[in-house]
Amino acid sequence: MIFTYRYIKHDIEKLQEFLDFLFYDVWLFAEGTFNFSKLDKNDELKKICEKLELEDTDWGNFFNGRIAWIYDEFAKIDDDNFKLELIDYYHNNNNIEALCSDKTLEPIGYSKLEAKYSDLEKAINSLYSKLYGSDSPFNLDAFGQLSKKLLQSHYKAFIDKNNDGICPFCGVNSIDGNIVSTKDAYDHYLPKSIYPFSSINFKNLSPMCYKCNSGNKSTNDPIEHIKGRKLAFYPYADNHPEIEFSFQLLSNNIKSLTPSDYTLSINAPSNIEELETWKRIFKTDRKYRANGSVEYYGRYDELICNKHKAKEWYEDIYDYYENAKSISEIEDAEKYYKKVIKATTRNPKSVENTIKRKFLEECKNKGLFKANIS
Ligand SMILES: [Zn+2]
Q1: For 26-38, how does the pLDDT look when each residue is reduced to its tens digit (9 = 90+)?
Q2: 130: CA distance to ligand 1 center in Å?
Q3: How far apart are the CA of 79 and the centre of ligand 1, in A?
Q4: How many angstroms separate the alpha carbon of residue 361 from the centre of ligand 1?
Q5: Contact 203, 96 (CB under 8 A)
Q6: Mean pLDDT, to the nearest integer, of 253-270?
Q7: Do the strands 205-207 and 244-249 form a parallel or antiparallel pair, or are they unpaired?
Q8: Burial 330-365 (b: 16+ CB within 10 A, else e)
Q9: pTM exceeding 0.85
Q10: Distance, CA 170 to ligand 1 centroid (Å)?
């Protein structure tokens, strides 16, 4: 990713705390049949569950029914070692930062859980797959209305703190700010369809532009626990390397550039594997097949090949040089070129700015801006 978000503390974290309590204090110690006295150590959650029982709504019955079902499945496990392993897995699945930076840390996926205890997997999946979104029982008043209130309030506070207006995963598209009525969707960085336990953990959730979220990342797994663990950038990391772009023209055919007319390379020398993960998940770089043909072009190729981007950047400067009829006019063209370059440095988080600068500098180095004074 191009830069990282800053994490914010918010009341919405309460929902994950309820789930932590259920896992560590209730389910792991399951014996016999579930009843509300098992929630005695968390008075707030106990009162909510009792209220849901009286209200007798679909969502309320769903929530109470699922926590009881998971309890029953835990009660059937007589393998204490597995329970101990599960404690580690639960901790790991919620330690997103460590999973991104340490390949020896093992998460658990639904597939592994299913292979070991398929009924437990069914029970856990049936609750966790519904915790986030329009069908979530957390949308009930008793939980503070996840979609209508908590998410709205979280988004506002989040954007107040993260107000760059650019998606950090691509550095190109905008992220809806608090002025407009629309909001960008939150992405589950570790997909909730693959990993249990972290579907409402906000260290695993962050706003992402539509193209990154639905068009590219989708349910791809950044840390690839099945195909072979991979390092990945963590969206809330305090330290994030600068992503370096370099651009080289292979032809002077600026008016109708195609990807074969240039090279665009993206590097992060101290985080090569994380960078490759990011390129793969968000399709930011070209991918070649084994036979050398192109499987897909990178998303930034669009900035170079779209006739309203690089071609217009070039023509804007070119016209100044082309129309210069005296030494002082050439000097003015030089000044204008420098002004445009300087403007691209104002927001270093914008990849469009960076690519524009690299592209124009390369045009200049190649002598493509020339005055026609005879
Ligand atoms: Zn994006």
Answers
A1: 999 999 999 999 9
A2: 25
A3: 44
A4: 26
A5: yes
A6: 95
A7: unpaired
A8: beebbeebeebeeebeeeeebbbbbbbbbbbeebee
A9: yes
A10: 4
**pLDDT tens string 156-180:** 999 999 999 999 999 999 999 999 9
Integer angstrom CA distances of residue 143 from 54, 149, 151, 220: 15, 10, 12, 30
Ligand 1: distance of its center to the CA of 317 in Å? 29
| Secondary structure percentages of the chain, helix, strand, coil, to 5 | 50, 5, 45
Cα–ligand 1 centroid distance for 211 (angstroms): 6
Token pair 């309320």 is found at 60
Rg, the chain, Cα only: 26
Residue recorded with tokens 């992220």: 175
Residue 291, both tokens: 């036979």
pLDDT one-digit tens code per residue, 297-336:
999 999 999 999 999 999 999 999 999 999 999 999 999 9
